[in-house]
Give the backbone structure.
Amino acid sequence: MVHFFGHLAERTGTASHTLSWQGELSVAGVRSLLEAHHPSLVGQPFRIAVDEAIMPDDASIRSGPQIAVLPPYSGG
Amino acid sequence: MSGPPRSGAPVQPLFVDGPIDPDAISRLLAPHVRPDGVVGGHEIFLGRVRADMTEDGSRVTAIEFSAHSSMALDEMDRIRQEVMDAHGLAALDVRHSLGVVPTGGICLLVMATAGHRAPARAGCAAAVEGIKARLPIFGREELDTERHRWKENRP
């Protein structure tokens, strides 16, 4: 399941949906897949967290875990 | 220095629904009156929602905060441990609003407790910076023109 936060939920018009792929994808690959599903994400800065941990750019991600798509933070 | 909370440490509260009541400070102070008398001071930071003006002349009337709550709670535990260890704090209390906070409302409260003023001040400042940079919290600014924009923290 992919969850969108902040203005990305507004842009994509959804808080969450399912997304699956075969094997492992790089962070860049997941980013491309998300942008293909949601063209409104193109050009938007966001980070990807898997099971609540931010993924470094060189990480590989398996389909299945909870994925959070996070825009720049604005707390405080 | 980072890592999971210390074994057996209770999960600290973080989020408050709507604006933070200024009386929360008194309630946070009470448990720090300790019989051993080792606490020498507290440094408190309060963040308020500012009536910022946008480029087109609209004014911010409120911020609606949302968060990846479970991730924010875990990250706050890490920030707390790092800051307490780095500055030798006795305690670090934090409250952050979720939901709508009108202009002028308090949306962040950080209180660092230490034996002396220098670590209390430094620890409080480090915690505020960590909160702004590392907690997955998102602010939607409501404008007086019935539009909105999304806030973004900058270093």
User: Anything to note?
Assistant: Helices of chain A lie at 7-12, 27-37. The CA atoms of residues 5 and 70 of chain A lie 6 Å apart.
